[in-house]
Amino acid sequence: MSALLEISNLSAKVGGKNVLNGLSLTIGAGEVHAIMGPNGSGKSTLSYVLAGRPGYEITGGSVRYRGADLLSLPTEERARAGLFLGFQYPVEIPGVNNVYLLKAALNAKRKASGQQEVDAYEFLQLVRAKMKLMQIDESFLKRGVNEGFSGGEKKRNEILQMLVLEPALAVLDETDSGLDIDALKVVAKGVNSLRSSERGVLLITHYQRLLDHVVPDFVHVLARGRIAKTGGKELALELERRGYDWVLEVA
Amino acid sequence: MSALPDIALPTNRDENWRYANLRPLAKAKSDAIAAHDPATPVDLPAILPDYERWVFIDGHYSRELSTDTDASCARLIGVREAGDTLLTMLDLDLAQAGVDFSLARVNGARGDVVLHIAPPDRAQARIEIIFIASAAAAAGTSYPRVQVHGGRSSHLRLVERHLSAGATDPLVNAAVDIALRADGIVDHCRVQNCADGAGCFDTLTAHVGERATYRLRTVTLGGIASRSTIFVKLAGRAARCEFSAAVIANGSQGHDVFAGIDHVAPGTSTRETFRGIATDRGKLAFNGKMIVRETAHGADSDQSLKSLLTGSGAEAAARPQLEIYTDKVSAKHGATTGKLDEQMLFYLLSRGLDRLQAQALLQWAFIEETVSQVELAPLRLEIEQLIATRLNEISRLEGLVTNS
Ligand SMILES: Nc1ncnc2c1ncn2[C@@H]1O[C@H](COP(=O)(O)OP(=O)(O)OP(=O)(O)O)[C@@H](O)[C@H]1O
Ligand SMILES: [Mg+2]
Predict the structure, then answer these.
(1) Quick check: B40 contacting A, CB < 8 Å?
(2) Are the CB atoms for B238 and B299 separated by under 8 Å?
(3) Given this model, what pLDDT does residue B403 score?
(4) Positive or negative, the Cα torsion across B106, B107, B112, B115?
(5) What's A208's domain CATH number?
(6) b/e for B152-175, b at 16 or more Cβ within 10 A?
(7) So what's the pLDDT on residue B42?
(8) Which of A85, B86, B112, B210 could cross-link to A51 by cystine, CB 3.0-4.6 Å?
């Protein structure tokens, strides 16, 4: 059986700059991978390339998702095929309410897999349950997407969307940044509730703290656009203690 | 077919008519259309709760379709009488300032009747007027006329709709004049949703007295060409104007608005919001002129004009214009023209929404800011549905309307 995600030798350019330089990474079903790395090393770029953001030019390599060529799909089809990107900086969209987006997103996914649109009542029950888990007040449903949300509320909202969509592969870009200690646990609980033998998670983070709660199978260091080191969860602890310099020297 | 021979038509060389599409005028016959039954049955919107309804077909009152009663504060009067009351209520200034711009007024003798609405002092009134254009421009022009004289502390809620039935290219030339006494309020909501080939021209004047408030919400969706010419004079101390305009130009539609708001008395204030979307080859223009006279100490005006372009041939020109003759004022203004926000679009796509749906949703979000100001809930819902249809996405945007 093929891996959930197989990134081979991926190179990409943004704004005229080579940011990813031959990155390879394989995520198997059921695995949680963490990517750490210095600011500007290309972590968010990787997440955008996976999601298909315009302006990111692939200059080499390939990405296979469940055996198929991911990079040839438009963004929306990647999403419907089960890829979810939790943004480092979720955008505010005043005038589009949160619950509408949740429902439209869920229905887009269901439609793509030949299912009927979700029943209004069932949908509300589902969303309420997930909101409870994420400790988001129901008043947020009627608000504009991320509009006026605090930093932490935006991150929890990303996870709420993820829980409603139940993606096969979640790429979470610094979802833990800006969270208070309790919120971090809430987010971790959300991510853990999604862990299963069919799903994969790619956590981009700067802090080992999150990894205490969502224990990764692998930890990678991304530096200068490629994976410079891979280890188990103890690598995160070591990075926390020693910083990145020693990895960069070896790489 | 005669092309309105006896009135001086504006031309695009005239600064204030630069962006108006005047072609429909040239093709039209200037005579008023004779009273008749519409060729096709008229599909009227649902009755608004507690509103009395006045329906006009090609400028002629339809008893059958109207629900007015003897107790109404509105009545039909002759054009001459209307002219006289106009001069006593409005100051001459305003009436004349309008003349230069108003096809309607120059052409005033053409309509038969004027709907005269005069809520007495402290009265409340709710009136819905529906103007239906049913005849082709080549057969004549329809001349809706309304006059409002709001008494002291009166509150008039006025819904004005322009629709069409039958011919796809009618010419409408409407005039509305409003005079509001001290502490009066007029909430005026105008929805123009005529047929795609219609030419829609209108002139609106408002004279606002002491501490009185004139709220105008306009939604412009129909017609191949439309032009609204609006003059508001804040004549009494602390008079206030709130004006929001939502305009969508689709296909090859061209919509043009001129709004001149004149702050004459001290402490007068204006809030003006324009949100326009031009898609395809649609063209939009909004000229928001704010005049603050020497006498208007402490005046406060705020303009926010935003246009969104989503087609390669789409154009928008939104211009704030300030003429300020005293320094004791606060005047804020902003005008932007932009495309759909790439980050927002990517966010929606990354959640699996398809591109057309995501685009329509962002257009919706853009214009919703003005529509949300329509206070009357059933009307707001209706407008939201009309807009969703215009955005060509009624099926995809379904649910949005009821959820918001
Ligand atoms: N549009 C752009 N134009 C030019 N350079 C860009 C652009 N987008 C990203 N970069 C550069 O690419 C590099 C990688 O950026 P990226 O956002 O992927 O870093 P990151 O690893 O996520 O950093 P952080 O930990 O700070 O979030 C940075 O040097 C950044 O300045
Ligand atoms: Mg980043």
Answers:
(1) no
(2) no
(3) 42
(4) negative
(5) 3.40.50.300
(6) bbbbbbbbbbbbbbbbebbbbbbb
(7) 78
(8) A85
